[in-house]
Amino acid sequence: ACVNLLPGMRSLYWWKGKVEEGSEVVLIAKTREALLERFTQAVKAGHSYEVPCVVALPILGGNPDFLQWIHDETA
Fold first, then answer.
1. Which domain holds residue 42?
2. b/e for 17-55, b at 16 or more Cβ within 10 A?
3. Residue 3 in 3-state DSSP?
4. What's 22's domain CATH number?
5. What is the pLDDT of residues 28-64, one digit of tens each?
């Protein structure tokens, strides 16, 4: 339904036996759990990293109107 792009994130991570540092853009996507696998595959297909970070966090609550909007826009 919606994404937020947060550029300029400094990342430190362990990769292939050493610590790497880089600048990344964090993408926060709002979608339904049923679309997670499709979303993950789309990110992997278009990302320059071998192993891009895609994680899902549970929505424990929020503005009911916004949550309904997410559902309606992704149905």
1. 2-74
2. eeeeeeeeeeeeebbeeeeeeebeeeeeeeeeeeeeebe
3. strand
4. 3.30.70.120
5. 999 999 999 999 999 999 999 999 999 999 999 999 9
Q: How many domains does the chain have?
A: 1
Following DSSP, what letter does each residue of 18-59 receive, concatenated?
EEEEEEEEEEEEE--GGGHHHHHHHHHHH-SSSS--------
pTM of the model: 0.84
Rounded to 5 degrees, φ, ψ at 14 are: -90, 125
Enter the tokens of residue 75: 């149905």
